């Protein structure tokens, strides 16, 4: 793959992931993950996942469990499900070593549920592995802008 093809393919992947999350297409979103996945939303910026408190710190099995819970339709915090739209921007495709590509981007997520609208903003690090003509996520780290503020129930996929 050439560098320009890599970057366009990465952008398409990020936009697809955001669309699947926004449309509550959980099984399709889960299929984007590699087996050795790590989904991390730290509570702050410093430190490693093993040594700090996290909002989310999931391996592949926990991601699958999270998806199963969301699909039951019986999660009180998501009944009815939030309506969401994400804007992904400032995408920076890092080095591509033939095995993985590191990508950082900013996001703004608008969530509306039960007459309340919230904004979630942050920066996301993805480490992606090319698979055929697509990618699988090895790492997704979401750093929220207002992580020190009280966080309402995070009962959806950020």
Question: Please, could you describe this protein's structure?
Answer:
By secondary structure, this protein is an alpha+beta fold. It has a single domain, classed as Nuclear Transport Factor 2, Chain: A (Roll), CATH 3.10.450.50. It is 23% helix and 44% strand. It has three helices and six strands. A six-stranded mixed beta sheet has the order 2-1-6-5-4-3. Strand 5 and strand 6 form a beta hairpin. The two termini are 30 Å apart. 20% of the residues are buried.
Task: Provide key terms for this protein.
158 residues, 6 strands, single chain, alpha+beta, 23% helix, Nuclear Transport Factor 2, Chain: A
Task: Describe the structure concisely.
The chain has helices at residues 3-22, 26-30, 60-71, and strands at residues 33-42, 54-59, 83-96, 101-113, 116-131, 134-144. It is of the alpha+beta class and 158 residues long.
Task: Chart the SSEs and their pairings.
Blueprint: H1 3-22, H2 26-30, E1 33-42, E2 54-59, H3 60-71, E3 83-96, E4 101-113, E5 116-131, E6 134-144
Parallel strand pairs: 1-6
Antiparallel strand pairs: 1-2, 3-4, 4-5, 5-6
């Amino acid at each position: 793959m050439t560098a320009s093809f890599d970057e366009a393919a990465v952008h398409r992947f990020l936009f697809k992931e955001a669309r699947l999350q926004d449309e509550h297409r959980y099984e399709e979103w889960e299929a984007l993950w590699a087996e050795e996945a790590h989904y991390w939303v730290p509570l702050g910026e410093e430190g490693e996942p093993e040594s700090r408190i996290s909002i989310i710190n999931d391996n592949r099995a926990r991601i699958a469990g999270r998806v199963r819970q969301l699909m039951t339709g019986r999660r009180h915090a998501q009944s009815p499900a939030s309506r969401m739209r994400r804007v992904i921007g400032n995408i920076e495709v890092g080095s591509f070593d033939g095995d993985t590509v590191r990508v950082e981007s900013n996001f703004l997520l608008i969530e509306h549920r039960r007459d309340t609208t919230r904004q979630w903003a942050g920066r996301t690090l993805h480490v992606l592995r090319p698979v055929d003509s697509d990618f699988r996520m090895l790492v997704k780290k979401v750093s929220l802008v207002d992580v020190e503020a009280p966080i309402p129930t995070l009962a959806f996929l950020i």
